[in-house]
Amino acid sequence: MEIKKLRAVLVGAGNRGCVYADYSLQAPEELTIVGVVEPNDIRRNDAAARYAVAKERCFRDIDEFLRAKLDCDFVINATMDEMHYDTAKALMTAGYNMLLEKPVVPNREQLLQLQAIAKEKGVKVNICHVLRYTPFYKRIKEIINAGAIGKIMTMELNEHVWIAHFLDSFVRGKWNSEKRCGSGFLLQKSCHDMDLICWLNNATQPKKVVSVGSRAQFIPENAPVGATEFCYHCPHNDTCLYSAQKVHLEVDGMPFQTWMGMNKPLNTITKEDKAAWLKTSDYGRCAYNSGGDINDRQTVSVAFENGSVASFTMVGGTNKPGRYIHICGTKGEVEGRLEEGKFALRIFDRSGDKFWYDEEIVDVNKDVVNSVEYGGHGGGDYAIMYELVRYFNGDESSVSITTIDDSVNGHLVVYAAEESVKTDKAVCV
Ligand SMILES: NC(=O)c1ccc[n+]([C@@H]2O[C@H](COP(=O)([O-])OP(=O)(O)OC[C@H]3O[C@@H](n4cnc5c(N)ncnc54)[C@H](O)[C@@H]3O)[C@@H](O)[C@H]2O)c1
């Protein structure tokens, strides 16, 4: 199809916002960034330079941006979780189409309100459920839609969050407290998986949820005797598996998060600066006394209206990270791991004297385009922008495209699961 070049405004020029806006550098004939809204001077100026945005199109906040009445095809709203409701509401009310980061909002009322505003204003709101766009899950969805495995009966999924990632984001980092950032672990990290469960099985509706989980590992009672508040002078620093010095200073796998609070361009921060900062910053704290309050493990069981069921286990802190999926249908099954980029498709075969299955390994590795420095979500970060450009150009054929209507169920399951943990009861969605 012929692609008309789209104009986007970046709202929140942090880590995620730049991942999406970078598509304008990878495919400049398809997307251009025409404005930046960002209160932080360094990030706003960096983004303006990176995407060649004129000074008069850079804004410190949404009000300033709205007053300028800048025309564009959509905005990329990549502000932090707790800002999604206010920013999305203001932008949608002003009539802007929006790519909105997940989690949409932390509760049912706000979610339904945003959905209603999108409908009333006739704006397109697409949620960054990037996993849907990965060649891995997209291919599974196409297989389901084609009827190859029949009607879905059972789904088993898990998410194993790598321990270094867990420590960086959820033990010491900006998502370690539901009170502070508005999202618990399930909402922040695994709303992707709840979305997958509902989207893959969207021939029916989720009905009831049971969930158990707690913060059981990174709690003060588990700290070794004599552990100090900060790791740098702790007697256990050399032996503790979760030492801040080791994971943040030496492994340093998520620098865009760990050192962000220093408010300096990343490439100007030396190892000495980092070591000094770890002496006072939350990133230098004992993992058991980090002030975090979110669960570090949780399971969720979902019953659907048509009798099918799904189960999900989220593990905060595994050696090997990964996501597993096994879907059993009436005619066949799918089983695989996202990280391997391939899955087994088994079709029951009872022809002749057979009562077994034919197995095909579906390998999607060649379809993965991963052009980000860290992560990339199995190609989903790139693919969502590729597909969004086509969607805004009138192509609605992708199975992955997520309007806000499509994303409601996954979030409702999260809210029900969190309520189930708190009340110790099954909760209707
Ligand atoms: N889709 C995914 O897989 C995925 C992965 C990680 C994070 N996320 C989500 O992406 C969102 C952003 O996360 P991040 O790590 O990029 O955060 P970040 O802190 O790096 O970026 C957020 C930016 O928003 C700016 N900001 C604050 N107030 C603003 C306002 N009123 N208007 C405009 N900008 C404002 C901040 O200064 C910051 O630069 C979060 O909601 C997070 O949960 C999604």
Please give the CATH class of the largest domain. Answer: Alpha Beta
- In CATH terms, the superfamily of the largest domain is Dihydrodipicolinate Reductase, domain 2
- What is the percentage of strand-forming residues? 15-25%
> Within the largest sheet, what's the order of strands?
14-13-12-11-7-10-9-8-15
Question: What is the CATH topology assignment of the largest domain?
Answer: Dihydrodipicolinate Reductase, domain 2
Distance between the termini: 40 Å
Largest sheet: 9 strands, mixed
- Helical residues, percent: 25-40%
Number of spatially distinct domains? 3
Helix/strand/pairing class, anyone? Answer: alpha/beta
Uncertain residue ranges: none
Mean pLDDT: 95
Q: Based on the structure given, which CATH architecture of the largest domain is correct? A: 2-Layer Sandwich
Rg measurement, Å: 22 Å
Provide a count of the helices: 16
- Bound ligands: nicotinamide-adenine-dinucleotide
Instruction: Name the overall outline.
Output: globular
